[in-house]
Design brief:
The chain is mostly helical. The chain has one domain. 72% of the residues lie in helices and 2% in strands. The chain contains four helices and two strands, in the order H-E-H-H-H-E. The chain has a two-stranded antiparallel sheet. Helix 3 runs antiparallel to helix 4. The two termini are 44 Å apart.
Length: 167
């Protein structure tokens, strides 16, 4: 379920970017007096040619090229760290201490230390996962932009070859 949500978010990001790309559509002027009908035919033919030439379809909804990074099993955590620390502290207290109060003190200290270490490990894992996710999203955005750029260049070349001014 989580992976599905991440993929949907990434595709939504690409859709937003594609919207900004559409807002920068090319302006085409029939510099050789072509009719509107002729211009529409040329636009369609150049769209088809550019799509095949670049491998990019600006009319298709953006998709991801790779699946998002996998989430790892949770490492550490406050509860796990506290439990491990308490067990370690109890063992140390049992070995070193002569009384039950020494063992309790060692257990509490171990639990507190383990909780801190466990929380730090989990937070570090979350940071790494977040960084991987951001890198993956940036890679997908860059691939989309590159595909769009290649398409735009091919489309411009086609329209200019048919006698249109393209800006």
């Amino acid at each position: 379920m989580n992976m599905k949500r991440i993929t949907v978010c990434a595709i939504a990001t690409l859709l937003i970017l594609s919207g900004s790309a559409f807002s920068q559509e090319m302006i085409i002027y029939p510099s050789q007096g072509q009719s509107n009908e002729q211009m529409e035919q040329d636009k369609f033919q150049c769209y088809s040619w550019s799509k095949n030439e670049s491998g990019f379809d600006p009319m298709a909804p953006p998709t991801t090229t790779e699946p998002p990074p996998q989430k790892e099993a949770a490492k550490g955590g406050t509860g796990r760290g506290a439990l491990r620390g308490a067990l370690g502290g109890a063992a140390v207290g049992a070995i070193a201490g002569d009384s039950k109060s020494d063992a309790r003190t060692a257990t509490r200290a171990g639990a507190a230390g383990g909780a801190v270490v466990g929380t730090a490990r989990r937070n570090d894992q979350k940071r790494q996962e977040s960084q991987k996710q951001q890198e993956w999203e940036q890679q997908e955005v860059n691939q989309y932009k590159q595909g769009r750029s290649n398409y735009n260049r091919a489309y411009s070349a086609c329209m200019e070859g048919r006698g249109y001014s393209v800006k």
